[in-house]
Amino acid sequence: MLIEQRTYAPRSAAQTVLLASGFGGLLFIGAFLVLGIVAQPYRSAQEAISALEFTSCALAQRINFVVFGALLIVFAFALRNELQHGRGARMVPIFQALSGIAVIGDGLFIHYPLHLICDLIAFNSTLLVLFLFAWRFWPDTHWRPWAVYSFITAVLMMLFLTAFGVANHIGGPAGIMEKLATATRTLWSVLLTLKLLKGARL
Question: Where are the domains positioned within the chain?
């Protein structure tokens, strides 16, 4: 019985650097966690990440948003190079880049309604990226577990964001819910990036 062997050519140094932007969420999370400790006044468990833009660390958080957004856009270029053709080959990078642009907007527009509009674009674009990946992965038995994982990640994000809205309305731990949504998406990106850097092909 023959066993299919998957072999992959080495990536270029430039593409490897582009892919490394997939770790950008770790930098973003690390920054807002540290800022949440030192910023005044700020209640990390109750308040949204964006609330840091109205504290003593306002400028640092605005820079954090802009840097993270830029890394999301760079990752969009990396994904375009990886996807080449097939399901979502064009739409995934477009929505990935759109999420990055919206996150940069979060850093530039700190007041409502523009900030809220950027938030909605960022989160909805991220969800579309996850659902598109699930759609792309499903026909490939090699990637099918990732189709399930991508779908579960999107659902978890929606649940956490719904909980964020409810908690924000009643004065509960809204900040924790939003940060969990961010961490859920970041974990997905980090694991996918690691898999690609190890040689997997989309």
Answer: 17-197
